Structure formats: C-alpha cells, structure tokens
Amino acid sequence: MRNFMYAFLVVLTFALAGFPQQANVTFYPEVEWLPDGEYLSFTMISGSNPKDFQADIYTIKVDGSDLKKLTSEEKNEFGSNWLKDGKSFMFIAGVRGDFGNSDIYLAKRDGSKVVQISKTTGGYSTPSLSPDGEKILFTSSRDSKNPRKPQIYLMNFDGTNITRLTTDSELAYYDPHWSPDGKTIVYYVEKGDNKDQIWTMNADGTNQTLLTNNIGHNFYPSWLPNGKKIVFTSKRDGNEESAFYTIDLDGKNLAQIPNVNGSMIKFSPDGKKIAFVSPKPFQPGKPPESSIYIANVDGTEVTKLVGK
What we know:
Blueprint: H1 4-15, E1 25-33, E2 39-47, E3 54-61, E4 68-69, E5 76-82, E6 88-94, E7 102-108, E8 115-116, E9 124-129, E10 135-140, E11 151-156, E12 163-164, E13 172-178, E14 184-190, E15 197-202, E16 209-210, E17 217-223, E18 229-235, E19 243-248, E20 255-261, E21 264-267, E22 273-279, E23 290-296, E24 303-306
Antiparallel strand pairs: 1-2, 2-3, 3-4, 5-6, 6-7, 7-8, 9-10, 10-11, 11-12, 13-14, 14-15, 15-16, 17-18, 18-19, 19-20, 21-22, 22-23, 23-24
C-alpha cells in the first residue's frame, strides 16, 4: 500500500479507464482531527481525468456543519497536519496532475498566509510535526534512485537540517507519525509483496521494531492519544475488506475495532471518538466512491459527515 495519494491515483486511473470522459468522481482519501476535537480536516479529490484531478483541503465541524474549503485551486493540496494550538496547519501541495513533485507548506487556520517550507527534490509527503513543534517528519524520494522507494526524513521546522532516518533503499517507507511524547515514530513499510507491515523506531531512527509480525497487509498507522497503543488498517485473518485494529507498542494485545471498516482511521484528541474513511466496494460501470464517518471508539453511533 503506497502513500494514499499514489494508491488512490493508481486505482482510480484503472477504474476510470472504461468511463466516458465526462464521468466525474469525488473521493475522500484521508481525514484528520483538529486539536480542539470539534472539527475535522479532510482532502477531497474530484475530476474526470486523473491528469486533471483537483485535490483540496476542507474543515468541517463534527456535527456536519460549518464546511469550509481552505486551499486554492491553483495546485493540488492534501494531507493536513495541525499545529498543537490549532491555529495553523501543514500540508502538501504540488502542480495539478503531478503528485510526484510536491512540497510541504504552512498556512493559517483559514488557509491564508501560505508559506513554503521545503524545496522540491523528488517530492514530499505526509508531514508530521513533533509535539514540541521543532521538527517535521516526512517521506520523500529526494535522494533515492527509485522514486517508488521513498524514505523517512527529519528536518527543522524551518526546513533546514534534513536528516534521513531510514537506510534500506530497497524498501518503501510511508506515513510516519510522532508519538504524543515525541520519543517514538510509527510508520509502515512496503516490500512489494502486498504484505505491508507496521514498525516503530526511536526519534533518531534507531531501534527499528516490527510490530505486526509479518502477518496480513497493514498500513496507515497512527497513535491513540495516550501514546500507549497504535491504531492501523489491516487485511488479515482472511478478510476481504480492510478493518481497523489497535495494538500495544510491544506488538501484543491486537484487537479489532468492531462494527466499522475502511481505509484510514484517526482517534479524537480526547480518545472518545474515531473518524474514518470508508470506500464503497467497487462496482463495474460506476465510479469509485468513499465517505468520511465519525463514531464512538467501540464502533457504535456511526455518523456520515461527507460523501454519498
């Protein structure tokens, strides 16, 4: 499973191959909580041709009200990550139709005062700001011979002092996230065998540890607010659909979240709610679709926020 934007484009390109040029799709590949727990941000992608897809970032209140578009239509913007005070957010932006060349930007809560942090060298993705606000994690193929094998990097908040944390150029590393205490990083690794695995490492790249024991296909990890568990998406136990699981930092106490399934999940800051993306099963003759939902952490009281 590659970075969500690349995975989305590959799937959608094939899915739209048989549709007339005017067929239009709207898809929601990711979701994120704002620090106040009262709002969510998400990426919406729309268009009829993969080369002309438009990606933008929106916010919406958890009751479904106050929907706002934060980004412009000049570029594709996706992958929001919020600063601790909730007044600003980082995101990825690139030229429309070219998701392989993109940079990290910073903007105010309303999308104003945009500042470019990185300078494109092979493309950047999935920025994650450290809890102390001083460092940014990201993935990039900036010094890789194979653009399909991005690595995990660390840099200062101003874009200086870039340090590579992963060292195996034969593997692809994706979706790094800081633990709440800033000491540990969770991410997933793609070997090309359709069995991606969840790993953790120290903040300096040492002590890289496999959590998912090479079982199943696992991706899109993130932290529970207390920092004691990780939540991720997985296809395991013979399941055709992806489900959501939590796991301890030592790889023990794996548990499935009941009643819900989808492609990406995030816990609310207070740990009482989940937000998740749930694609509909592909149906021949129809464009692919997805929706964003919120629910209690036990999968009850599911509410759709956006999508068909």
